[in-house]
Amino acid sequence: MYDFSYNGIKGSKLKIFASEYPKIPAPKRAYKEYDIPGKNGVYLQDLKKYEQTEISVSLNYIGSTKYWGERWREAKKWLSVKNAELMFSDDANVFYRISKVDIGENQKKTMRVGVFEATFTTKDGLTYLRSGKTEYEIKDVIENQYIECYPVYRVSGKGIFLITVNGCVLKVPCDGEIIIDTERELVLKNGEIINNTSSGDMSGLALLPGKNDIRVSRGFDVKVTPNWRCL
User: Fold this and answer.
1) What is the pLDDT of residues 30-59, one digit of tens each?
2) Beta-bridge mates of residue 1
């Protein structure tokens, strides 16, 4: 048996453990197929994203007969959370982004032992580095050792802010602090969406594998949460 965590809570805290290491499918690039009249085969359009995958984990829990049902209810409550992170104890530097969890039927193997299956549906099948959730200076994220990732830029200052990443430009007024979320393609101020004040190519602000060219307007303080990810 080994430990794992979901939504920041370790299974061991609830006395729930994985009975064996799950089979983790490799990420699959998403494509759309088109038939081309008069030609053999199909045309594949790269959708520039990865498909969802499923990670099934066999779980068990042990407790006194008196609290067996209570432990099962705790398990269901814990795994009912959507849009959370899944992390395995033997690979604790990375996590999976989970959309939902499907819980199988509960079987009472003995008077004290219960077993069930939990199937975690990932958002994209990719592994995300925990270090990628930290804010960095621009100079520290220029080199991307992983696959393309979608950072969050936190900008502080006053005036017209310009950011250029690998030749792609975004222009937005800033008075205080704004957030540029490249994955959701949102510009936020105090939690409010202000995309209508910006102009340019926000999708181009992703960090590509290798060295990136990032330039920003002077007089602004910029922090970057890179959201490093890998296959």
Assistant:
1) 988 887 777 777 778 888 899 999 999 999
2) none
